[in-house]
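Lab notebook, bench 4. Continuing the backlog of folding jobs that were queued last week. Each job is logged with the same field layout so the records can be merged later without manual cleanup. Today's entry covers polynucleotide adenylyltransferase, a 478-residue chain. Filled in by technician R.K.

JOB TYPE: sequence-to-structure
TARGET: polynucleotide adenylyltransferase
LENGTH: 478
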Amino acid sequence: MDPRIAWFPPEQLGPAQILWTRIWESGIGVENMHLNNHTNPNLDKKAQEFIPLDFQNNFDKKQGPSNINRQNQNQNQKRKRDNRASTYGLNHSSAVHLLGENGGLTPWKPRDKTYHRGVIGLHEEIISFFKYMSPRPEEAHMRQDVVHRIRQVIQGLWPAAKVNIFGSFETGLYLPTSDIDLVVFGKWDKLPLRPLERELIKNKITDEDHIKVLDKASVPIVKLTDLKTDVKVDISFNMVNGVRSAKLIKEFMHEYPNLKFLVLVLKQFLLQRELNEVFTGGISSYSLILLTVSFLQLHPRIDAASPHANLGVLLIEFFELYGRNFNYFKTGIRIKDGGSYLSKDEMQKRMDNGYRPSLLCIEDPLQTGNDIGRSSYGAIHVKQAFEYAYLQLSHAAAPQNTHLQKGRDSLLGRIVRVTDEVVEYRKRVMENFPVKKEQEPPTVSLLSSKSSPQQRTYASVATATPSSNEESEGGTQT
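JOB STATUS: finished
OUTPUT FIELD FOLLOWS
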């Protein structure tokens, strides 16, 4: 079982599982003892054959390959510690204490709350999850404070510069630990990444240990962590499409009322598995939202876009499509003009500079020929996680398996958890950034949450294999 993706479902927990987990951990411990023994001649030989992806940046003539490996392991561990939502290693026996404080890591489900069984109950639970995870006024107030202080620094440095918010904070589809995306518009001969870095440190927004300038990236940015709030911020320059994409997402949220429910669940699903960033082997939030939009655009049932559709069925079908049925090798996704699929050969003709369509090929709805997923080198891991989620939910929600949903057990909790660390972080935000009623900032509106689900079976949606005319518009319903 991949510790990054999966954990034991409730029906597998018990004395036997605990025993076998400890036996397995003991075996892993012995292996690690050998791996960490750098006097082992076999280890040195293997280490010399290993070249990390970022070896050009990490290699030092004074360091051996074994040291490079240890550095990479430490970086991976640090990234997991930085992610409060990470559920990595949840099956480990030392993680059992996590299951006590907030009802088994499902705080959206009150202890005395009982849902219907099957997909109707999953629908109800998704609504509960959305209400719980949606931004609170205090969280919005805290982020506005971060933006205000950074804007003051930037405009103090360049009075004519304009600072805009985009991304999840602008659309309202952000999680408690999500980053803030800012774009600075102005006129410079050379992007002033380093001057901005120095000014942010000088004004104590951040310090040298919590800021990084990515000047060699395809989109140069300044990444920082705000010292006052611990909120992460990405700052780019003159990126018009960032603002335009936020506007486009808002339009889709209006067109598809179910979009925000699905996206918030899916964002948490990827975040806790370290699959929410391109550079950690995942996909971007923008790619995820476009995948969800395409799913709703091309769904074979007309009522899939209705606010009364069953969210549980839609979530399972999403995982079925992108975890099992979608042809990643031959098919690209088009969002504009109502949505369609296109062959990668067709996409290739529209791309410039010799680029080839990526595994997860999504045509940019704002820039023809641009592949949104071209940097998502780890998209196959996302596909595997989606397949795992489909198997878990479709099995547990099937009519013949309603006995698996006992008492306090959460159906959604089979694939999504909220760690105690996130719960405590939200409590601190509530305490440190109180908001008076008349000052409450706008939050995402919750549209019809009382629905009468009409679909109680699973639909096999588009297999995404292009037809002879190189486009396909969906599959069949079963």
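OBSERVATION: The CA atoms of residues 162 and 388 lie 44 Å apart.
SIGNED: R.K.
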